[in-house]
Amino acid sequence: DLHYVAYGSEKESLYLPAIRKLISNDLSEPYSIYVYRYFLYQWGDLCFMALTPDNELVGVIVCKLEPHRGGPMRGYIAMLATRAENRGRGIATRLVRMAVDKMIEKDADEIALETEVDNIPSLRIYENLGFLRTKRLHRYYLNGNTAFRLVLYLKPGIPYKPTYPPEF
Q: Does residue 112 sit within a domain?
């Protein structure tokens, strides 16, 4: 009964407030409107929404794709949220798969994200899709919680591809 669509700038007035509300209910970080616009304006085609037949937002994933320190083309899952009463229906998994497929289509080498170490449902979704825990980030979030960085390697040899520090 749900349909899934890519975000587009023409959808901003209709869906950006709903996206902000859904994400602020689920995630521990307080994001400003500018953070949402940073992702949605540049990579709207990598951001997907799950909508009811009445076009009510019940799930969203916000992503980007760019070179990582002069090395691999890295996709990044910045935000994923599903309305509480709609959880357990595979919505988040489908949104992640759609984002991963689109990043593969755009020649991503790897996809990374962070999630809180105690967010077992999130860890289960990502690990079932092949993401690996690569780093533990102590007190990563503003609320003091620790995170895992998870990475999905899409091509052979990517973990060994050199990266370079940013030039100052």
A: yes
Pairwise CA distance, residues 106 & 74, whole Å: 11
Q: In terms of DSSP H, where are the helices of 6-137?
A: 12-26, 33-43, 91-105, 120-128
Using alpha carbons, select from 26, 29, 25, 22 the residue that is nearest to residue 7.
22
Burial class (CB in 10 A: 0-12, 13-18, 19+), 123: middle
pTM of structure? 0.91
Comparing CA positions, the residue from 18, 12, 7, 13 lying closest to residue 57 is: 18
Contact, 64 vs 47, CB < 8 A? no
Report pLDDT digits (tens) over 86-129. 999 999 999 999 999 999 999 999 999 999 999 999 999 999 99
79: containing domain: 3-153
| Tally of domains within the chain | 1
Nearest alpha carbon to residue 19 among 54, 52, 43, 49 = 49
